[in-house]
Design goal:
Largest sheet: 3 strands, antiparallel
Oligomer: single chain
Number of helices: 6
Strand order of the largest sheet: 3-5-4
Radius of gyration: 26 Å
Order of helices and strands: EEHHHEHEEHH
Strand content: 15-25%
Length: 197
């Protein structure tokens, strides 16, 4: 609750009375808690942070999907399609490798499990390294695998797509601050993961 401290007095029984003002209606909370001891924590108010990078990306994806559904209803656009297409527009977030053709479906199921953005595609051009029974495969990483620089590019691409469709977006300064914050939290989360062999 946002409030302003107004006054402090000492009552006859030696207790301090602190008053505050707020534009939010506290009556329901007061009626519910007036007969109980409560814990009060007061700290300096700060404006809520701008939207976190991942959440903002999905807000843009949702709005882009809606616009594309209106623009191209025959395509039957979904959020998943918009998200995966946005990843494919990125540079440096995929790798090409060769693997046994029979293993591709199993690998795809394992790679994409729990990750909407991760993708596996068999490339045109036939056999991998000229070996029969092997295929060239492109493996796409999802946004949860991105570095800070890649996430910045991903959001910037989404912003450009959104603006092209007439969707309002945040300022470049807000975008930069948001991505930096995402990077710091992302790095902390990665460093907290146990090492694996």
């Amino acid at each position: 609750m946002k409030a302003e401290l107004r006054d402090i007095t000492k009552s006859m029984d030696g207790k301090y009375v602190v008053t505050y003002t707020t534009t939010e209606d506290p009556r329901e909370m007061f009626d519910e808690l007036k007969d109980f001891a409560v814990e009060v924590k007061i700290r300096k108010y700060s404006e809520p942070r701008s939207l976190r990078a991942n959440r903002y990306a999905w807000e843009l994806i949702d709005q882009i999907t809606e616009k594309m559904q209106q623009k191209e209803p025959w395509v039957k656009w979904t959020q998943k399609m918009v998200y995966r297409n946005a990843i494919k527009e990125m540079g440096g977030v995929s790798q090409i490798c060769g693997m046994k053709t029979l293993a591709v479906d199993y690998f795809r199921a394992q790679w994409e499990y729990g990750h909407v953005g991760r993708q596996v595609e068999i490339l045109d051009g036939g056999m991998a390294s000229g070996k029969e029974g092997w295929s060239n495969v492109r493996i796409w990483f999802g946004s949860s695998d991105f570095t800070s620089a890649q996430m910045a590019q991903f959001i910037n691409n989404l912003i450009q797509d959104a603006e092209g469709l007439g969707i309002p977006t945040i300022t470049p300064q807000e975008e930069e601050r948001m991505v930096k914050d995402w990077g710091k939290r992302h790095e902390r989360a990665e460093s907290a993961q146990p090492a694996t062999a």
